[in-house]
Structures are given as C-alpha cells and as structure tokens.
C-alpha cells in the first residue's frame, strides 16, 4: 500500500508528465499548421513532385510525425487514467488482480495498470 507521501509524489510526477505531453502535442499541431507543402509554395497545382524520391521522403516524414503524435496522445490518455485512479483510490493496485503494484514498477512506469507478471501472462 502506498503512503500519502508516495501518492502525492506520484501525482506530482504524473501532472508534470501531463504538462510535458500536452506541450508536445501542441507543438506538433502548431508545426502542422505552419507547414507548407513544396508544391503549395511554388504555386503548383499538381501534387506530384519533380522527383518521385522527394514525394516518398515527404510522405515518410509525415507518417513518422503522425506516429509520434499518436504515441503522445496515447501517453496523455494513460496519464489521465492514472490521475483518475489516484482520485478514486485505485492507483497502485493491479486492474487484473487487485494486488499492489510494486513501488519499483511505479517508479519506472507511473502509469502502470498491472504487475509485471500479469502483463507477461497476457503475452
């Protein structure tokens, strides 16, 4: 069972993680709004670049950025869920068994929902 002090420390850590993740998401959204695609700035009507390699590189970069955005979004949801578990008193207990999650695991992964052995059992 976590002490009040430990619970407070995890809450502060999660709140800090939340602010950082929200900043990452806002930065991505602002960068996307500011980006110009090569053909837009040249006034080209066609979406086909002069060289097929340029189009492939551009598409790869867009997909990579979107993947990072989605990972940040999922991280924010996990953080919010952990903060909600702190509010309702279920933080630090496995969602699967109700057993306490070891302090070491929570220190490494404060959003943990289950014990390591339970996660491995699901694989």
Automatic annotation (TrEMBL):
Entry coiled-coil feature ranges: none
PANTHER family: GENERAL STRESS PROTEIN 16O, RNA POLYMERASE-BINDING TRANSCRIPTION FACTOR DKSA-RELATED
The protein's name in its UniProt record: DksA C4-type domain-containing protein
Species of origin: Halobacillus amylolyticus
Zinc finger residue extent: dksA C4-type: 94-118
PROSITE patterns xref list: ZF_DKSA_2 (PS51128)
Skewed-composition ranges (Basic and acidic residues): 32-44
Matches recorded under InterPro entries: DnaK_N (IPR037187)
Domain of life: Bacteria
Chain positions covered by the region annotation Disordered: 21-61
